Amino acid sequence: MTDYVTEAFVLKKETWNEFDARVMLYTPMFGKMWAKVKSSKKILSRLNGHLEPLNKAMVRVVEKNGYHIVDALRFGRVSPLILNALPLLDALTHEDVPDARMWGIIRSIPYDRDLLYPSLLARKMLEVGGFAPLYAECAICKAKPPHYFMMHTTLFLCDSCIPYSQMMYDEVVSI
What we know:
single chain; 175 residues; alpha+beta; CATH 2.40.50.140; five-stranded antiparallel β-sheet; three-stranded antiparallel β-sheet; DNA replication/recombination mediator RecO N-terminal domain-containing protein
């Protein structure tokens, strides 16, 4: 049984069993990771509020039969304007593979709720992931610069071609 204390950015939270939860975190030590939180759905849970999506927190993770969060303290909450970039971060990263450049981007997200350019965050993530929008063109009409990135097909599209793509809203990221 090993425990770690690290900074974390909460990406996702799902119910696990009746009272427990699973939380997807992005940390500098582990990269993207899933961790279980015992009794987080109970009324008197002290961890539940600290482990909500978009929170930056200091967490203590115990590794025994998977990862378990035993302590957490929220020290910041980022703007809800970046919600469209969270699925992109999930798609561009792998579990248990730390990436210092991606962590640097996440860490530089301001704590306040005044993020001026949410698409700039998506552009930076795409550059680190190997999909530089600076050199990209629309996959259909070859127009430059593209304004959208389709995660499942890894294609760039412009404003005039996006209606013809027939993609769902959550599969397209505005850049």
